[in-house]
Amino acid sequence: MSYIGNSPETAHYPQQLENGDGSTVSFALDHSVVSATSVIVHVGGVYQVASAGYTISSGNIVFTSAPPTGTNNIEIVFRGVQVQIPTPADGSVVAVKMESGEIPFAKSFTSSEQTITSAGSLTIPHGLSASPLLIQARLICKTAEIGYSIGDEVVLSMYGSDAVNSFGASVVIDTINIDIRYGSHANVFLLINKTTGAVSSITLANWKLIVRAWS
Q1: Residues contacting residue 215 through CB under 8 Å, at least 6 positions apart
Q2: CB under 8 Å to 186, separation ≥6 — which residues?
C-alpha cells in the first residue's frame, strides 16, 4: 500500500499498572526512561503533570504525594520505548533455521589426496545427497618443482587437449559420485611455471589431486 508523504512508523508504548496504598510514593519502573516527560502518568484517572506530580530518579517514579489506595489505580505509559532486536551469537544461526535456498553452497565436500595416473579413473563419493552445483580441483605440490613449493595448491582448468595430446581431466557428477578420467598424456597436467611463466608438464609423483564440491 502506498502513502502520501512519509510512510507511517510504529513504536512500542508499554503500559505499567501499580497499586496505590496511600503511603508509598516510589515505584520501580519496568523500562528505563531519560526524563519525567518520557512517561504519561494517571493516578485514579487523573493526569499527572511531569515534575510537578512526580519525578524520575534512579529507575523509579517518585510521586509528590502518595497515590491513594486502589487496585491498578496508577497507570504509567512509556513513550516510544525502543524495541531491542537481539543480535544472534556468532555461529548460532545454522542452515536448518534458514529458508530452503537461502544459503547457497551450504554443503561442501573435500576429497582426500588422490593419485594422478595417466589415463586413469577415479570414482569419489561426495555424500552431498544432491548433484554438486560447483566443482573445483587442485593440484597439491608434494615435491618442489616448476617453481612451486611443497604445500602449494594450484587451481586447475580440468580439461585441455590439442590434436595429439590429451591433458587434464574430465569430470562427471551425479547425486552420489564425482567421476574423473585423467588425460592420456604421460604427464596428465600442464602448469605455468610459478617463477618464469613458461609452460611445463608436471612429474606425476610430485603432485596429488584433491577435489572440492558444493551443493
Answers
A1: 105, 107, 108, 128, 129, 130, 131, 132, 133, 134
A2: 118
Q: Is 0.70 topped by the overall pTM?
A: no
pLDDT of residue 167: 87
Q: Which three cell numbers stand for residue 132?
A: 554438486
Which structural domains are found in the chain, ordered by start? 15-78 (no CATH), 104-214 (2.60.40.10)
Q: Using a CB cutoff of 8 Å and minimum separation of 24, what contacts does 90-94 make?
A: none
**pLDDT for the residue 158:** 63
Q: Which ranges of the chain have pLDDT less than 70?
A: 1-12, 80-85, 94-103, 158-164
Is residue 32 a contact partner of residue 73, using CB atoms and an 8 Å limit?
no
